[in-house]
Every structure is written in C-alpha cells, then in structure tokens.
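Extended Data, record Thy-1 membrane glycoprotein-like
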Amino acid sequence: GESKQPLSFYQKARKDLLRHSALTRVLVIPARSELISVCLEEDNDLRVDCRIEPKPNKINSYEFSWSSGTKESLINTNVSGSAAEAQFRDKSEVVELEPHGYRMTLKGFTETLPHNTTYMCKISGQVESVLVEKEKLEPCSAVSLFLKSSWSWIVPLLICLYRAYC
C-alpha cells in the first residue's frame, strides 16, 4: 500500500483554510458596497467615497450625483461640457483617493435630504450606486474603523481556527 506522509504545516493550514472558507467569506465581506460608501462626517458634511478602478489609458473623469424619485441631480464633475447644479457649486469638493477613486464632500444638505436617496458615482464611464435611507446614514468614523479593522481581526481568527483543528 501507500505510506501516508504526515501533512506539513502549510498543507494543514491550507486544508483548514479551505474547510473554513465559507465562514471566512461571510466575515470578510462588509454589508455595504466595496466601491461606493456614503457617510456623515463629524461636522455633519455628507461624504461619498467612490473606489472604482479606472480603466488603463483613459482620462480619469468623475461625476457624483444623487436621485430621489425620478429626478437626478449632478453634484460635482470634472467632465468637460457638464456642470453641477447651481445649488451644489460652492458646497462640494472632490479629492483623489489612494490607490484609486475619488471622495466627494457636500456641505449643508444633510438636514434637507429626502428619506430615500440613491447616490451615484461614475469614474471613466463605470457607474456605481447605493440606496441610503436618511435615518441609516452612519458616521464616517464607524465606516473607516470597520474597513481598517477588518483585516486586523481576520488574521487572529484564522490562527485560532488553525490551532483548534490541528
């Protein structure tokens, strides 16, 4: 017969990782979209982060807009020939995010937001959108803390699973 070699550390770890991949997958994926997030900053400004990766060899253009009901309003853009609506012109600013994407901050509109608002961002022709209820807008500190901390607890979890099943 075939002699069974003991599993190496890496083979065991890989086997356990595969066995628990369904659990890990559930824990790693946040409830919000990976590419667009909406939150309230400490000063009550609305923040929309759009992390669409641009296509290579394309000029990076962006558009931020929202819609409630059937009306879509353009908040900020760098697309030539397009202009933000007058009510937003001096109220919003956009900065570039690393490694890719843009962050739009809008001042003075959180009190007058409709109950349900769809936030949209378009980078180099690719569109992402998310529907947010006004009452469920989270503070940005909670969003960034979740995104920053998710890997910091995944690694100890995997080590714990490894120890439990080895």
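Summary. The two ends are 26 Å apart (CA to CA).
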